[in-house]
TrEMBL record:
Name of this protein: 6-phosphogluconate dehydrogenase, decarboxylating
Enzyme Commission code(s) on record: 1.1.1.44
Coiled coil regions, renumbered to chain: none
Record keywords: ATP-binding, Gluconate utilization, Kinase, NADP, Nucleotide-binding, Oxidoreductase, Pentose shunt, Transferase
């Protein structure tokens, strides 16, 4: 393609002979009325071009053995018509040159119905494509042909990545550091996102073998078959849009990997839709943040096992390594199970973060300790059984100052969230699993969002706490340890129920293993769960009675202090309530069932009836 006079007919004919396929000149598809217009110096309008472009597209689709077409195709909407339904086997070659060079050529042309005077209007109309092969015409036709054939050689890139945000860039560098030849794509947005992939590649030495694209067709054409494309784009509509665009270019047996935080039901829907086209789909959770993505994340892929086998060498190479040197990446299971466990991972993460925030609140607002002193306490905790990534970053961030002020005293107390906590809460409600600490952590964030209301209420009532008692740090440590155990038990029970309900066949011990490094919730506790979860999802059953009794009393002590001090600590209280409900026989649901039967005749079962029969009572 290109403006009149760029040499597209000459070069196109030469290329067709080189490829041993037919050559078609776009000029030959013009109806006589169009030819008459152009001969009179009248530019064609879009209505004039519609049928002309459609006739070439029809001819292209019929050319099963291939063909070369020469056409001006000055606007993107014209090119869309030309390329409609052509898949990834159609190449666009743009012959580019300056107005001065082409004008000189036009002046020398004879027996052609395009007057040179129309060249300016063509340049004014031209929308330069940001994809395809761009070939300079400031050389002889033979060298132009050589440039084209060199760039159309067999694809050399083995793995593709779409989306160069923070996580995408880190994963790309991780893949490159493991010796993989990459094709990197980032969308084109004039003025804000231009040549993102190319500039990124030029920034890092490890990407020297990578190729950057901002056109999807060229990106796909650069990949070896079966193509493997890793998506790191925003979850939701953006993911659907990119998959739709990709699916028109990919072939049967190619694999798309969605590494975003997609809802597991969307993952299952996308997998089914792509399967109809013969394209394989893997939904994978990726945890570890920017640093983890670069140095080694925890990766949770699921879907078609044959698809996983095609991508396993890449994902397992870049994953973090557990204490035995094995990659923190495993085939999780069928369907959307990979994204499901990533969702629960994030839910556990919510509660772990909230527990630490509550530990800070007790030590700061009840015991009156400075952030620096609290940091020292937490750093000591991190040397033992409580060690975790989140505990580590918490004691580190507590030391940070801006001038003479601690950063934690400057940061506005309004916590954000990206939706996975609410998804986990919705799932636990659907499955009937009481993962109460996750929902408590989520609601704590929601409450924090209403800062204006909280400030107004505090100012109006100005309640004071009198006779405040100091918390024993050892009690707080034990309480925190037990609450964390409850959080993990609830999370894994939710995964176990989902596995059973959706018939995924998940291996909880293996999930714990890939969460021991690379991910946000990695910890010493997670290491112990690998063996524990081989036998039971009830982590409490593996506890020593005396140890549990001591920790439970400490949790009661901390709960009492928090309540009496007016400190919000929903996750510690939720853990205590869960333990009270499970460790003591103080039933309350019998009253609920009686109430339901009283007003709605919903019936109830009896403790003295072994057959499970339902009963109804006339209460008045």
């Amino acid at each position: 393609m290109g403006v009149s006079g760029c040499g597209k007919s000459t070069v196109g004919d030469m290329l067709a002979k080189e490829l041993n396929v037919p050559f078609y000149d776009g000029d030959d598809f013009h109806p006589q009325v169009n030819i008459n217009k152009m001969s009179e110096g009248i530019p064609l309008n879009d209505d004039d071009r519609q049928g002309w472009l459609e006739s070439m597209n029809k001819k292209a689709l019929a050319a099963k053995e291939g063909a070369v077409f020469a056409c001006s195709a000055l606007k993107e909407k014209y090119r869309e018509i030309l390329f409609k339904n052509t898949g990834n086997d159609a190449y666009l070659i743009y012959l580019e040159g300056s107005f001065e060079l082409i004008d000189a050529r036009m002046q020398a042309r004879k027996d052609h119905f395009m007057p040179p005077d129309l060249l300016k209007s063509q340049f004014a109309t031209l929308e330069v494509p940001n994809y395809g092969l761009h070939i300079s015409i400031d050389q002889n036709p033979e060298n132009i042909l050589k440039d084209i054939t060199n760039q159309m050689e067999k694809p050399t890139q083995e793995f593709g990545l779409v989306g160069l945000g923070v996580m995408g860039k880190s994963l790309a560098r991780n893949l490159a550091n493991h010796g993989f030849n990459l094709a990197l794509y980032n969308r084109y947005a004039k003025g804000s996102e231009e040549k993102v992939a190319e500039r990124f590649i030029n920034e890092f030495d490890e990407l020297k073998t990578a190729k950057g694209f901002e056109d999807m067709r060229g990106f796909v054409q650069s990949l070896e078959k079966p193509r493997r494309v890793f998506l790191m784009v925003n979850a939701g509509k953006v993911t659907d849009y990119v998959i739709s665009e990709l699916s028109e270019l990919l072939d049967e047996g190619d694999v798309i990997i969605d590494g975003g935080n997609s809802h597991f039901t969307n993952t299952e829907r996308r997998g089914a839709e792509l399967a109809e086209k013969g394209i394989q789909f893997i939904g994978t959770g990726v945890s570890g943040g920017e640093e983890g993505a670069l140095k080694g994340p925890s990766i949770m892929p699921s879907g078609d096992k044959t698809a996983y086998d095609k991508i396993a060498p890449y994902l397992e190479a870049i994953a973090a390594k557990d204490k035995n040197g094995k990659g923190c990446c495993t085939y999780v299971g069928k369907g959307g199970s990979g994204h499901y466990i990533k969702m629960v991972h994030n839910g556990i993460e919510y509660a772990e973060m909230q527990l630490l925030a509550e530990v800070f609140a007790i030590l700061r607002y009840n015991n009156g300790l400075s952030p620096n002193v609290i940091s020292t306490i937490l750093e000591e905790w991190n040397k033992g059984v409580l060690s975790s990534y989140l505990l580590e970053i918490t004691y580190k961030l507590l030391k940070k100052k801006e001038g003479d002020k601690y950063m934690v005293d400057i940061i506005l107390d309004q916590a954000g969230n990206k939706g996975t906590g609410s998804w986990t809460t919705e799932s636990m409600a659907t499955l009937g699993i009481p993962a109460t600490m996750i929902s408590s952590a989520l609601f704590a964030r929601y409450i924090s969002a209403f800062r204006t209301k909280r400030t107004e209420l505090t100012a109006k009532f100005d309640f004071k706490i009198e006779n405040q008692s100091t918390t024993e740090v050892e009690d707080l440590k034990k309480a925190y340890l037990l609450a964390r155990l409850v959080n993990h038990q609830q999370g894994f029970e939710l995964i176990a129920e989902a596995s059973s309900r959706y018939e995924w066949g998940l291996n909880l011990s293996e999930i714990a293993r890939i969460w021991t490094n690379g991910c946000i919730i990695r910890s010493g506790l997670m290491e112990t769960l690998i063996d524990t979860l081989k036998n039971s999802t009830s982590l409490l059953l593996s506890e020593n009675k005396e140890k549990l009794s001591s920790e439970l009393q400490a949790l009661r002590n901390i709960a009492t202090v928090g309540i009496n001090s007016g400190i919000s600590m929903p996750c510690h209280l939720s853990a205590l309530d869960y333990l009270n409900a499970n460790l003591y026989n103080h039933p309350t649901a019998n009253i609920i069932q009686a109430q339901r039967d009283f007003f709605g005749a919903h019936t109830y079962k009896r403790v003295d009836a072994a057959n499970g029969k339902s009963y109804h009572t006339i209460w008045e």
